[in-house]
Every structure is written in structure tokens, then in C-alpha cells.
Write a structure and sequence with these properties.
255 residues, alpha+beta, 2 domains, 8 helices, 36% helix
């Protein structure tokens, strides 16, 4: 008796296994999609395996981009840029302090008391003296007027200086409102009116109009343009430039 052979379309077990995509391959494929979109591989694997939420991963990527942008645009360190990106540091304050530091470096030693400079000095009490600056020491300066003998003047007697050609404009711009009987700056710096570098630079940075009141009552209005250890520049109406000695300050307020 012959045996009947039945031909079927059955597939060998090993062939079925080949047709089924392994679960871990699916995860790798999904991770690769994240990688192709810019996500780091290790982060992508953490997401597909459920160790990290996708939204958290996207937030981290966005923060990384913000950090890189801050580094490139403002030349911050990565640590500082990261603090800004997560809200633990204020970018405006960081940039303000940087500009303040640069200003101090550039103008720290600036002064109108340059030897051989032709300057008109306003003295505390009202006199204006045109002179050529001579020898400058820690506490005094030699002033040589156009005529007559040189005079040694203590720096505390000077309140501001300007180019002689501005004399007529200065007479119109400077007012006097006597608020105090004090006509001499205190010898000790700690006893004088203080205006910090940070405050002065804040006026410069925002170009704020300020009112400078000196100890003998003179009032000057203008915009602070620079400051050094002992002086600051004031641009008054008509672009009149005045150098104010900080020791002569009675008050400095917004105009």
C-alpha cells in the first residue's frame, strides 16, 4: 500500500523566529529615531527603557541648547551659563558686573590733574583758577597761573575742573543752593559722602541724568560719563565736560 504524501505551506520553527522582530530591536530602532533628531544615545536609551520621561529629556536638551547659546553669545563659562539657564543666576547682573569691572580697569587712574594740562579749577568757596598743572603729590598739586607765581594747592580745596574755553557756559549752568555751612571736605574718606562705584556705573550704564550737589552748595546737572578712584566725568547741557572731585560731594541724586 502506497503512502500518501501531503504537501503543506508550513514553515519551519526557526523560520518563524526569523520573521518576528525582537523586542530589544524595536527599542533600539526607537532610540535611533531619537538619536537622529539630536538626542544623545545614552539619553535615548534611557527614554525607551522607561528610565527617563520623554518630556524631561526634551527639557534637558532645550536647557543644553540655552547653555551653549549663552556660552557663545556672552562668553560665559559652562558652569555660569548653566546657572543662568536654570534660573539660579541673573544674566543682566552678570553682564553688568562684567562691564563695571572693565570700566574700573580702563578708568581707574584717570584724572584731570595731568602734568602740563591747561585746566580751570573751581575751588571750594567759589574761586575759579586757570592754571597749568605742575607737580602732583598724594595730597597736593602745583598750579601755575598764566601770570604770577606757582601755587601749591591741597587737593581737598578743588571741587571740579574744566577746559578754560567752557568758562562762560559753566557760569550759566552751575547754580548755587547753600544747604550747609560746611565748606571743607572731611579729611578722612570714611567721613565723606559716599557714592559707590556700582552706583556711579549704574548711572553711566543707563545714561541717567543726575544732580551733583557739592559741599559749598554748587549744583551741577548732567550725565556721568566715567569715574575713577577720586573723580568722575559729568557731561552737562551743551556738551560741557566737567571733572568732579568725589571728595567735594555733598549729595548725588537722579535728576
Amino acid at each position: 500500500m502506497r503512502r500518501r504524501v501531503v504537501i503543506t505551506d508550513s514553515v519551519k520553527p526557526q523560520d518563524k523566529r526569523e520573521r518576528i522582530v525582537p523586542e530589544n530591536q524595536k527599542l533600539r530602532d526607537q532610540a535611533q529615531k531619537y538619536v537622529d533628531s539630536g538626542m544623545p544615545y545614552q539619553m535615548a536609551m534611557s527614554v525607551v527603557h522607561g528610565r527617563m520621561d520623554l518630556n524631561e529629556a526634551l527639557e534637558r536638551l532645550a536647557r543644553r541648547d540655552r547653555v551653549n547659546a549663552l556660552i557663545e553669545r556672552h562668553e560665559l563659562s559652562r558652569a555660569l551659563a548653566t546657572q543662568v539657564a536654570i534660573g539660579h543666576a541673573d544674566l543682566d547682573q552678570i553682564l553688568f558686573r562684567r562691564r563695571l569691572k572693565a570700566h574700573r580697569v580702563d578708568f581707574r587712574e584717570r584724572t584731570c590733574l595731568e602734568p602740563e594740562a591747561d585746566i580751570t579749577f573751581a575751588r571750594i568757596g567759589g574761586d575759579h583758577t586757570r592754571a597749568t598743572v605742575g607737580e602732583v603729590t598724594m595730597y597736593s598739586v602745583m598750579l601755575q597761573p598764566p601770570k604770577g607765581e606757582a601755587e601749591e594747592v591741597h587737593k581737598l580745596q578743588l571741587k571740579y575742573g574744566y577746559v578754560p574755553a567752557s568758562w562762560k557756559k559753566i557760569r550759566k549752568l552751575v547754580k548755587n543752593v547753600k544747604k550747609t555751612d560746611e565748606n571743607t571736605p572731611a579729611e578722612r574718606p570714611q567721613d565723606r559722602y559716599t557714592c559707590s562705584d556700582k552706583r556711579l556705573f549704574g548711572y553711566i550704564d543707563k545714561e541717567r541724568l543726575v544732580v551733583t550737589t557739592l559741599i559749598d552748595g554748587d549744583v551741577l546737572k548732567g550725565v556721568v560719563t566715567w569715574f575713577s578712584r577720586y573723580e568722575y566725568g559729568l557731561r552737562m547741557k551743551g556738551d560741557v565736560e566737567v571733572t568732579v572731585f568725589r571728595h567735594a560731594l555733598q549729595e548725588l541724586t537722579l535728576g
